[in-house]
């Protein structure tokens, strides 16, 4: 039987149809398997875990098969209770597959402390930028007699003089004692009246 005759035969046509059907069934079965394996279309919303203790959060997600992973403890944020979840990824209400890991960050127990650098002799502007970079807050400013103006003479907190190396809590206020720039200042005579008052006695003594 020639090739042309064979491809026109019923045997070849039935074989071809059978092969197409088998391939179609294999493709369909593979897609169904992948759909089941990946739980296609079956996403679960992530609960809001913020302000929850880790133990409570674990109990809240246990039914969905989620796993909580603590990745860091962040600086204390007064908007969240101590040692509770302050950040989470994925975020609340995000749609994820069952069994997904939820990464969380824990709010610190309280404000951490920082060591003060030497601020004496620095300008108020420079000293303010330094303490703010450390997480501290500028408090009151008071002036005392000094040759320089707006230069730090000392710093205080709650009436206590602070020195370089002292530890203070973040977010606490630092008060500045500054020079007023008036020490040794002598006003110049700037009016004819003042000049006359100084010269007049000498003129009267001539007559």
TrEMBL record:
Q: Which InterPro entries match?
A: PASTA_dom
Q: Where is the PASTA domain?
A: 41-108
Q: Which UniProt keywords apply?
A: Membrane, Transmembrane, Transmembrane helix
Q: Which Gene3D superfamilies match?
A: 3.30.10.20
The answer, when asked if Metal-binding is one of the entry's keywords, is no
Q: Which residues cross the membrane?
A: 12-37
Q: Which SMART domains match?
A: PASTA
**Protein's recorded name:** PASTA domain-containing protein
